[in-house]
Amino acid sequence: MRKMRTQRAIAVLASVLLIGGVAACGNSDTGGGGSKDDGKITMGFSQVGAESGWRTANTTSIKESAAAAGIELKFDDAQQKQENQIKAIRNYIQQKVDVIAFSPVVESGWDTVLKEAKDAGIPVILTDRSVDSADKSLYKTFLGSDFVKEGRLAGEWLVEQKKGATGPVNIVELQGNTGAAPANDRKKGFGEAIAANPNLKIIASQPGDFTRAGGKQVMEQFLKANPKIDVLFAHNDDMGLGALEAITAAGKVPGKDITIITVDAVKDGMQALADGKFNFIAECSPLLGPQLMDLAKKVHAGETVPPRIETEETTFTQEQAKEALPNRKY
Ligand code: AHR
Q1: What are phi and psi of 259, to 5 degrees?
Q2: How far apart are CA 117 and CA 78, in angstroms?
Q3: Is the beta carbon of 236 within 6 A of some atom in ligand 1?
Q4: 281-296, pLDDT tens digit by residue?
Q5: What torsion, rounded to 10 degrees, do the Cα atoms 291, 106, 79, 100 define?
Q6: What is the pTM of this model?
Q7: Does 263 sit in the ligand 1 pocket, CB within 6 Å?
Q8: Cα 7 to middle of ligand 1, angstroms
């Protein structure tokens, strides 16, 4: 009788160990490379930097949403440098986090580190900006905006405004940082939208790195080199806001002498639009945190997620900005 009880106890113990073993394998199969088995998801997040109001709002959204979702967040600010992002991602791989998420400062050059994450069984989510890797299996999904569409909406608005114009309309463009998806795509979308109107001409286009200081400095150069500027297309609000200072210092009236179109719709940008200094903004939402945490839970659980999830966005005229401003959260 005692022998039978001992045998049964051994059998129960063996099955417990077996189930535990299968569950552990299942965990790594789903890409959960986490070091602790406390049921809590750990996310390693590499942020681009703190270059703009948009970025600050995006960081807040990610930190708050991680806390609300019960996800342990390891956060790194790459200060606009790809090498810092690669270093951070390698650290997260070493620490065996469950999920890696990042907003790539530029589009190219990620294949090696993404492959390292894949080999370690850690799922990667791209957020805000995408990469140009041909191998789409290197990441689980992309969550963010359609930047080409934002540029196109900006261009279409301008075409509509200048419908009756017969003479040349000189446009200057402040691009985001070189090689970044929003800089490449907004340029593309805007260019395509105005292409059928030969009188709308981009006479100068330079990177202002998505910062106010960059926008101001490059706009000063544009103004010095070009006596007739009719339109500024800035790839974000912050560069537009920096450019306002240069335009005013040059004795011109922003929003009147020079039509100003930007992207983002952060509070300061919306204020400039409501004040008549900007003329049009294509929105880009930074509030990606809640969806990102949802996706992290899904990929960690081994669920299939769509390869691309786009944020819903709108556009603002001066009148619409006045209405929206009191309730603007960022
Ligand atoms: O990737 C999103 C862009 O990056 C925002 O438009 C800009 O403000 C930010 O720095």
Answers
A1: -75, 130
A2: 18
A3: yes
A4: 999 999 999 999 999 9
A5: 40
A6: 0.89
A7: yes
A8: 65
